[in-house]
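User: Predict the complex with zinc ion.
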Amino acid sequence: MALIPMKEILDAAEDGKYGVPALNINEMLQLQAYLNAAFELRSPVILQASMGSRQFTGWLSKGNPNANLGAAVTMGMIKTFLEQYRCEYGYDVPVSITLDHGPNFEECKGAIDNGFPSVMIDGSIDYSRKNEKGKNPARSLEENIRVTREVVEYAHARGVSVEGELGTLGGIEDETAAETVHLTDPDEVERFVKETDCDALAVAIGTSHGAYKFPGEVKLALELVPVIHARAGNARLVMHGSSSVPADLVAMVDEFPVIRLLGGTLSINGLFNPAMEKPETRQYKISDPSEMARLGADLASFSCLKKSSGVPMEHIQAAIKSGVRKINVDTDGRIGTTGAIRKFMAENPGEFDQRKYFNAARAALYKMAVEKIKGFGSVGKA
Ligand SMILES: [Zn+2]
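Assistant: Here is the predicted structure with zinc ion placed in the model:
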């Protein structure tokens, strides 16, 4: 079995009433960690490559990064690992890769032409325009249907699955930044699915992209999920922005800030109280006891990451119960990688072999993937 369209994975999840993790990848460590977790737990898995990911893998020393090159390299890398793991493990698990937030027809076509078995067309916002705040404006329902339909026609003719999006999410995931947040209107769901014939539908129920989802209490419109599910026909429901931003991963980043000591002055950059919007650099003369006392006081409320919460696993499980089948997780992989590397370097200050700290990052990514697969209920569903 080669890479399969995500429709096959999501239809099986619909029948079995479980969720499947959709994990973003940018490089080899994530791929190894996520595929190993999927093989060991015999779980289906969906991998995702965003525009930013394809530009990262499509890096060229001369000139601009080439997203199509990135797409081709990503596909080649996945296929190679998959083939080897199938021999190594002696069995197969269903794996798909999808373009995450395709901004327009051309980008989706580029991914499909490079062999992607699934794509997402995000017709909910207009990526070609930005307002003065640097945000993309929302598209009308008609415009969203038109662009999604165009991608579906090209994709379905080639056996490729398509995910559309109805309603807009907040936050930032690579270049994805909507101007305003609109929850999915259940009244529009039936029409959207019918007229676009999309295979999966990303719904906006109050999640957002990035690490800072809920400054206070977690508020999700979970009551919308069963209503949308009942009206979505054969389109499987997708939750974006569903990292849990777990306390243990955040703590790894926060507990190992980068501190610079130069000429008797200690510099530290971060957030010195929860109300701060941006980190700032503060300096302390280590020979001056009053400055060291100030450092002590500052560190009492210090953090590298802003205080906020992600989507707790219980909320995701409730959404799965009501019909969500694909759960997108990107941020947790980023925080895990960063935290593990910071921790390793703090504990092994003399180590400069990059394999050592990459190993630590990969272990954190693997652990994260195992937790998602177990939490979403896809263990043994391969
Ligand atoms: Zn997303």
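The first helix runs from residue 6 to 16.
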